[in-house]
């Protein structure tokens, strides 16, 4: 606890420090490539025949996803705290790559914990992390996926707390991580708000994002919380279907519990043992969800839908063909519901989808599901 | 109520001028019947208190030995209710050895704190240690345990400074568990000289006996810590015996109990020659 209190205090001080914020802004502009564009997806809009669909192009950030926003913020904080070693957990490898990237940029040693199962299915990202100088440690305990990687990173952190900073990639875990990660990702929603006002002269009717731990979604949602006319829609991974046990939808298929230092909706059995999540997308393959999403669900401010593996694959191919953009299979879950949302809002309306990552990393997965070898 | 069993045991240890030996075993490891045999054999092997782990799928404060023990227990079908049943069966033959359950919050939350506390008290449990429940979040659980007469045993660590200690020990009873190393169970080795001043600090802050655990694997190390602490906890070294015996197809119970016996001896005779040294 003293270590999370220390982190909490350090983050509060950094957040209030204009020099820290200025430095972060500068790196986001010149290194990450912000602001990311808000793109009117004309053909996708025509295809569904409903509201105008805009894509917030987070996949155009350096490293190809929104993950870098948070990594940049946290590594500046870690250095401010005098920490000299960085550890992280990763599922799909996107957060691991983003962490390895900022560690390379600032010359800090980096250890990334990754479930052995994920190491196997995300080999290109493992190699990418190695190229960036990070050590990837496969985790074989438990179900050998993201939650176990997080357990192992926590074990490392409590063992090496004197010099080590744990750079958590999603808006979950113990306080202050959910708040801090949200704040660093809120740049997505803030930019979106400005950009959509400029393009349309009004706020959107809905913003839509995929949700695993939920960092891209909370970053998009948070700046709109007080804009009651803006519907906030998260899309959870329904895996092989909500009627099966093979999904990763904590809100739609779980119940409240405590894991990794936060109380939130979790996939668990009737004994309170955490059960394995299943999704085609390694990045959504987590049995929990950020606690703020659970709260937004409970108070009814946000709505959480689901999309299956098959629906997401279809959406992946649709966006590739209609707009020339390969979405991350994670983001494709949100895309799988965007047609429903656009039609519900109807012509004359405006919806924004957060395209949180690019799909190059998923090409092999998609090919395998199509029965193709590449 | 039941906390009396913990107090009585530490009073007896004080009278005998020695530290207690706390044996940690995982409920249902490697299976229910063997775990019960081990439990029943522990007092005769020299265990003064028993920590009974209840398995959780994500034991993030544990090193590999106890992680694997939890996985074996879960695979063998052990549950929270099953853990209480084990304790109840143990109580048929032993009414004096305190049993402290140790584990993680979610299974308790899932059962409901009130129900769990009443069932645990009825099963003869004396205290509960919940690794992932900081004092800030402990009030509802502490209240339920309190109402059932059970202690919520708190954890203090090398990073707990005096300000933190005062928060940790608020409203606690029984004893305080001092985690002797920064890290997880069963990996680093505890250093008695480093531990000593912390034990003193925790005693002063809490007014309670202090049990030291994490990183104590050998009788020699246990003896060294027993010279400075009120009790010594060994877990990973015992559950490792389960793993080894299972692997070699040997008798699990005798392997664990003989290990417990050698550790208990280390603790029991640690202060021989200095009987005037008092604790607490």
Compute the number of strand runs of chain A: 12
* Oligomer category: heterodimer
Query: What name is given to the CATH topology of chain B?
Result: TIM Barrel
Tally of separate domains of chain A = 2
Instruction: Please write the string of helix (H) and strand (E) elements of chain B.
Output: HEHEHHEHHEHEEHEHEHEHH
For the largest beta sheet of chain A, what order do the strands appear in spatially? 1-2-12-7-8-11
Overall pLDDT metric of chain A = 96
Query: Helical residue percent of chain A?
Result: 40-55%
| Largest sheet geometry of chain A | 6 strands, mixed
**Count of the domains of chain B:** 1
CATH architecture of the largest domain in chain A: 3-Layer(aba) Sandwich
How many E-type strands of chain B?
9
Identify low-pLDDT runs of chain A: none
Number of helices of chain B: 12
Name of the level-1 CATH class of the largest domain in chain A: Alpha Beta
Strand content of chain B: 5-15%
Can you walk through the features of this model?
The complex is a heterodimer of chains A (374) and B (280). Chain A is 46% helix and 18% strand. Chain A is α/β, with parallel strands linked by helices and 374 residues long. Chain A has 2 domains: 2-29 and 67-181, Rossmann fold (3-Layer(aba) Sandwich); 33-64 and 186-369, Rossmann fold. In chain A, α2 packs across α4 and α9 (177-185) crosses α11 (215-221). The radius of gyration of chain A is 19 Å and the shape is globular. Chain B has one domain (3-268): TIM Barrel, CATH 3.20.20. Chain B has 12 helices and 9 strands. A 9-stranded parallel sheet of chain B has the order 5-4-3-2-1-9-8-7-6. Chains A and B meet through α8 and β9 of A and α3 and α5 of B.
